[in-house]
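Q: For a teaching handout, I want to show students what a protein-ligand complex looks like in token form. Below are the inputs, and the small molecule is adenosine-5'-diphosphate. Please produce the holo structure.
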Amino acid sequence: MSRTRTDNFPVLALRGRVLFPDINANLDVGRVESLSAIKAASERDSILFAVAQKNPERAEINPDELYLVGTVVRLKQVTRLPGNNIRISVQGLYRAVARAYELENGSYFATVDELVPVHTSPDLEEAYFRTSKSLMQDVAQTDSKISKDVIAALDICTEPDKFVNIAAHSLQLKFTEKQEILEMSRVVDRLERIDRVLNGELEISRLEKKINAMVRQSIEKNQKEYYLREQLKAIHTELGDDEEEREEFERKIKAKGMPAEVEEKALKELTRMSKMQPSSPESNVLRLYIEWILDTPWSEKTEDTEKLEDAVKILNDDHYGLEKIKERITEYLAVLKLTDGLNAPVLCLVGPPGVGKTSIATSVARALGRKFVRMSLGGVKDESEIRGHRKTYIGAMPGRIINGMKQAGTINPVFLLDEIDKLSSDMRGDPASALLEVLDPAQNSTFRDRYLEVPYDLSKVLFITTANDLGTIPRPLLDRMEIIELNGYTQEEKREIAKRYLIPKRRKANGIEEGKLTFDDEAIDEIITGYTMEAGVRSLERNIDAVCRKIAVKLAGSKKTKTNVTAASVEELLGARRYERDKQLEGDEVGAATGLAWTAVGGTTLTIEVSAMKGKGEILLTGKLGDVMKESARAAISYIRSNSQSYGLDVKQFENTDIHIHVPEGATPKDGPSAGITMATAILSAFTKKPVKKSVAMTGEITLRGKVLPIGGLKEKALAAYRIGVKDIIIPADNKKDLEEIPQNVREQLNFIPVTDVDAVFHSAIINL
Ligand code: ADP
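A: Here is the structure, written as tokens, with adenosine-5'-diphosphate included.
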């Protein structure tokens, strides 16, 4: 430690501060010793020795408690403050070490030696200096507590020792640390220390920054939410809608008696909704959803009719005839009652239109005292029609099942699924499999509608389905159902249904009092045969309705109080006949045979005409011929050809003869193989030139080897034959079991000829074969 100068200065004792050379500082001074030291200095050269007390808490100055190393400062300004305090401004000059402290006239004086900086290794010094400078820049960037002036001064500073002084003064260090730096003489040590401090400082300010950012983020988020909520509240108030809607919904949800899971879901969506702007699309979606949940029955239920007899009476009162059907439904209701509806099979009513399928289903509902809903499946292609769309879809709604349940308003209605055979499927999912879930007791207690999102219990619903044709019902669905077939009605049955049900019903609907309108039996018959062509009674009902309307107008405009409709007045009321009576062949004819066909509107007769002309052995088919009928025609020709000898024909004849087969347009036969034997008969008659008996009609499928296979719809076909007055009906022997389905009065008047091969057909139908 080299000494350059020694001097004696008044001592300025510092409490908790250290002053450095090369800096300016302001100090407030109040202690008597300090004041007198300042006074002494100002009286001399204004120089003071500023040195820190070891214990800053201590008020009185004790030389033993002063550090030895301090800074010689110049007093630059003295300002009086209120009270006895003064503020001084000093400039640090150089470091010095006190040799001794003496008390003189109330203030301490120190004899001090100057401490000069010691330069040891210039390279290291330079290296430290550079890093310190750049560190200082970094710190300056982060720490705003260092003033711009200081930073600028440090930046331009070229002397390492001066740099240390300024830096140590400006940094927030404990005074003891500052004292340590002040006491160091080797510049390298001092720089190294500053370096460490700056690094530490930097680390702290990085942490500070991070913490600040985190704090700010959380504050910002809270503030943002708070702000938005306040805004929303303001909007609600502005729009005049407040909590009312939410509370109303909540009350309804809780009162509805829905399963816990559903209630929870509804309340959750309600909470979501109440947080949204009421006019926003999202809020509307949720409102609609909650309304759906509230409109869907979850616990509402009707009690079934107590006594089975009462139920059966209703069923009987509603329908004429249908004895077998009523019997089966009665059984079904009995089982339903015994098992409390558990695992009851789904009824499927099959038959042509207008035979009373819908009517029976409504009647079942009425008999049980349940609500009734009906949904047509005709043309339903898309699975989502059954299951609905997710509510996120624009305009989404639940599927038809849930729609039906809403309509019913109870969890146990009779639910009629109409035209289950008309379901179609395409790439948008398979509605049949969705329906399977609906009808399957093992699955339908947790039916999932995509819109509702919560499971719905369909197990209490009594499902009844209808179909025109069993053939097109998907197999798995068919297996789930108990099939009840309804056939068409005979003329007599139709007349009775008209008299007992349709006429009174239509009369009432048109506001005509009982007794004011009567129908002759012949009038009803005339309507049935001349204006309808059906297995059921739908078109009959429509025509009766048309008559009633006309009569209602007449009655209103005249003094007449009563009208009786006769056969003769029907044409006047309904216009010209639409259908001519089915005619049997005019007489025995060559190349024409009467077949019987089953169509969607019931049984019908069809005449098949064949002509054999000179030609090249070609086959021409015209008229209403489906592909299956064409196949039958070819099979018939092959059989006759290969057995030509037994019918006295020459095989060569087939090679130079063209065969023309025609089925007249008037009939609308269903494409089916049952015209096989009729075609064969007409063809053989054409070749042999022997006539077919006009009193014979026939139905049956033919194989290449001449076997006659059974057909469907015998009852319908028999009724059609009966209508045109045919007496003999050739039927496949395997169909004999179906004869009992035919009403007795009809059966008694017909002569059924069961056959197993086509040869028997030919011999029964062709004269003189
Ligand atoms: P489907 O559903 O088979 O097409 P509907 O049930 O609609 O036939 O019947 C058509 C009309 O005929 C209805 O007004 C129905 O009440 C009536 N009806 C059908 N069969 C009978 C019957 N056996 N007794 C009384 N009315 C009947």
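A: Two things your students might notice: The two ends are 154 Å apart (CA to CA). The chain has a mean pLDDT of 87.
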